[in-house]
Amino acid sequence: MSILPYRTLDNVIEGAVITFVDITEARNLQDELKTQLSEKINLLQEVHHRVKNNISNIEGLLSLQAVSSENPEVKMALQDSVSRVQSMRILYDRLLIGKDYRDVPVKAYLESIIDSLRDVFANVKNVVVKKNISEFSITSKKAVSVGMIINELITNIYKYAFIDRNEGMITISIEKDGNTVTLAVRDNGIGIEKRTDGKLASGFGLTIVKILVEQLKGTYGIKNDNGTKSVVKFDL
Fold it and tell me: Which residues of 185-219 are buried (b: 16+ CB within 10 A; e: fewer)?
């Protein structure tokens, strides 16, 4: 509703003109859009729940197969698959907890993956894990790649870096500088040269890392540094 004064030629107010606009249709449309949006959010949440449950089932089946296998190589391969599936399941946990299906808090997400890997490789004793992960968010699409990169690098360390050693240390740091993210994973183990020369390192795992880094349009480097240090850089 709007009210406009009605004036004479002498600029004397003699009345008013009242205009009414029917906004019923606009309000109904707004309510309908709100309803549709709510329905889509609920549907998306249900989809994430179902995907997470399916991933959990796959993880459980692989774990059961790994336990029941008597072949060490098969057991190790299945264990690797479990950790890879686990990183995806954790992502869906983060998405469902945060109620935001586009961005994922990096610190909570990656710390969950790191902790779960420590449980997977509980037989590797006396390994201290230090985490220095900055607080920022990343798109869910990039989060999948980063999570799997972390999984592959740490898995390789647990499996190969501390051969014939009674203790070790793994340090994971992730920092954001402007639009650039730097991920560094290092250990104080036997070094990449000994792992490679002795054919201990998983070539398949590092191949996965390189593919994932390419998907991020980033860079990847690995070197000896009182152990092994891997560095990944990419832009958000």
Answer: bbbbbbbbebbeeeeebbeebbebbeebbeebebe
* Nearest Cα residue to 205 out of 91, 117, 84: 84
Neighbours of 63 (CB within 10 A): 17
3-state SS assignment for residue 21:
coil
pLDDT tens digits for range 24-49? 777 777 777 777 666 666 666 676 66
**SS3 state at 3:** strand
Alpha-carbon separation of residue 123 from 83, 104, 140, 159 (angstroms): 15, 31, 32, 10
Q: Which two tokens stand for residue 10?
A: 């002498």
How far is residue 61's CA from residue 55's CA, in Å, rounded to a whole number?
10
Q: Which of 64, 144, 155 shows the shortest CA–CA distance to 116?
A: 155
pLDDT tens sequence across 167-210: 899 999 999 999 999 999 999 988 877 655 544 455 777 888 99
CATH of 23-235 given 3.30.565.10, 3.30.360.10, 3.20.20.140, 3.30.1490.20: 3.30.565.10
pTM for this model (two decimals) = 0.68
Q: How far apart are CA 127 and CA 161, in angstroms?
A: 11
